[in-house]
Structures are given as structure tokens and as C-alpha cells.
Design brief:
By secondary structure, the protein is of the alpha/beta class. It is 35% helix and 16% strand. It contains eleven helices and nine strands. A hairpin with a 5-residue loop joins strand 2 and strand 3. It starts with a helix and ends in a 7-residue tail after the last strand.
Length: 277
């Protein structure tokens, strides 16, 4: 109740802040740095029923060969390696009840993805697949307080691939603040969804701020990546319709959803379907 009261009392000030600050973050949407020409395979063209696990090298190769961009997730291992995996926990995808940040590369190399022979890839193994071909949407999966170290290491590695087209996104506004300060030339995006309905352990105030993208007034993202089912939330609508910020929609699981997203001007991040089917 106390948190809800704080939200109500702060709402007018937050609205004013948004409308004063957000225009400074408006970006040229047309062409969107060349990224708008592609559809993006979520964690590669994976299909575990066909023996293709998510975020595997095979899934990424298939996406690039088919002419799709791809979205992937990056974590930091205990010994500083950039690990491509969605969850921080290895339990769902590798069957081991440990976190990536607690594992060394040697330990990770012994694991396999979802009962297949596919190993857990590192970011330096994935980037050459896409360099000079199709773009990547790189999601920074900050864990604890490693947002700055993880983001810096990702940027250093990306610098080694000058012919790779990419953008960086994160649910964590601290990642975007770091990019804005240290690497403003990199296209950055805020990931979000309706956290009020799906709290994910957040308190109500934080869930409200992240749902309605209030942190955009500070981070000034080039784009917003919003959950397709939640895309009509107030903050997403304001970013899209008032300030013209480019939008991605995730995760689309049918050609019909892809078509609807594109009709609304969003770039699609899809899985378990083909956009052109």
C-alpha cells in the first residue's frame, strides 16, 4: 500500500519529467541504421524437436544462411568469458544447477545444450558467423553488479569485428547508461514488458517505472524492444507514437504476428516460425 501511494504521489512529476526530457532522445527512425531491413531469429533458428537448441552455433548459422538477423543473450563467466545463453542458471538448458557467473570456461565447455551434442558458445564464436552478412541484436544479461564489466567486455569484443552490423539492448537501464556515457555511437535499446502484471521479483514502483519506460528520460535509447502482447502499454505507446522511437517486438511465434508487428512499424524478433511462411 505504501509503495502504491508513492507511485500515485510521484506520477505527475514523472509525467512532466518524461515530456521534458524524452524529446532529446528522439532518433532518426527512417532506415534505422540499416537494421530495419531484416527479421531477427530469437536465439537463432532453433527448434529442439529437430535437435537444434536455442543459442547454439548451428541455430545461428542457419539464421545467417537464411538471410535473417539474430537476437542473442550474453553473460559473463567467472573467468571473464562472454557466454551466449539466455538464462543465468544452467539448469534449464544444460541440466546443471549452477549460475554462469560461478563457472569457468573449462567447466562450461564440458556441458551440452538440451540433450544434444551442441556446446555452449562464446560470443567470439558467434560474431564471425554474422560479420558481413546479417545484423545481430545483442542482449546484455547483467547479473548482480556486473553490468559495467559485462557491457565493457562486449563492446571491446565487438570492436574486433568492424564489418558486423549490430545493436545492443538490455532490460537493465544501467547498461544503457553505461553505453550512453562510454559508447554513445553504439545503437542501444531498452527491453521491456508489462512488469506490473509479471513482477519478476520487482517492487511495484520499479515495475511501474520499467513498464512505462520512465528511465528512457535518462538513458535516451535509440529503440525500444517491447513484448508483443504488452506493446500497447502507455510508455511504449508514447515512445512509439509521440517521439517516434523505433520499436522491436518480441517474441513472435507465427507469421501472422510478424505481419501485425511490421504493419505497426516494429521490427520482428521471431522463433519457431518463418516470417515469410
Amino acid at each position: 500500500m505504501k509503495t502504491a501511494l508513492i507511485v500515485v504521489l510521484c506520477l505527475p512529476a514523472l509525467i512532466l519529467l518524461l515530456f521534458l526530457c524524452l524529446p532529446a532522445g528522439k532518433r532518426k527512425k527512417q532506415g534505422f541504421y540499416g537494421l530495419a531491413a531484416y527479421d531477427y531469429a530469437h536465439r537463432g533458428l532453433h527448434d529442439i524437436e529437430r535437435g537444434l537448441p536455442e543459442n547454439s552455433l548451428r541455430a545461428f548459422r542457419l539464421a545467417a544462411e537464411a538471410g535473417y538477423g539474430a537476437e542473442l543473450d550474453v553473460h559473463l563467466s567467472r573467468d571473464g568469458r562472454l557466454v551466449v545463453m539466455h538464462d543465468e542458471s544452467l539448469k534449464r538448458t544444460a541440466g546443471v544447477d549452477r549460475n554462469i557467473c560461478d563457472c569457468t570456461a573449462q567447466e562450461l565447455d564440458a556441458l551440452r545444450l538440451q540433450g544434444t551434442e551442441e556446446k555452449i558458445p562464446y560470443l567470439e564464436e558467434v560474431l564471425p558467423i554474422f560479420e558481413g552478412r546479417t545484423p545481430l541484436v545483442v542482449e546484455i544479461k547483467a547479473f548482480g553488479r556486473n553490468h559495467a564489466a559485462l557491457t565493457e567486455e562486449v563492446c571491446k569484443l565487438l570492436d574486433r569485428f568492424p564489418n558486423l552490423q549490430f545493436c545492443i539492448e538490455s532490460f537493465d537501464p544501467r547498461v544503457l547508461l553505461w553505453l550512453k556515457k562510454h559508447r554513445p555511437e553504439i545503437v542501444r535499446g531498452q527491453l521491456s514488458q508489462n512488469f506490473i502484471r509479471e513482477r519478476s521479483g520487482l517492487n511495484l514502483l520499479t515495475a511501474f517505472l520499467l513498464t512505462h519506460l520512465w528511465t528512457n528520460a535518462l538513458t535516451l535509447p535509440h529503440f525500444v524492444a517491447y513484448k508483443f502482447q504488452d506493446r500497447n502499454c502507455l510508455g511504449a505507446a508514447i515512445s512509439r507514437r509521440v517521439w517516434g522511437v523505433q520499436e522491436f517486438n518480441w517474441t513472435l511465434r507465427s507469421a501472422r504476428q510478424v505481419k501485425r508487428a511490421k504493419k505497426n512499424g516494429a521490427l520482428p524478433i521471431f522463433e519457431l516460425c518463418r516470417p515469410d511462411n
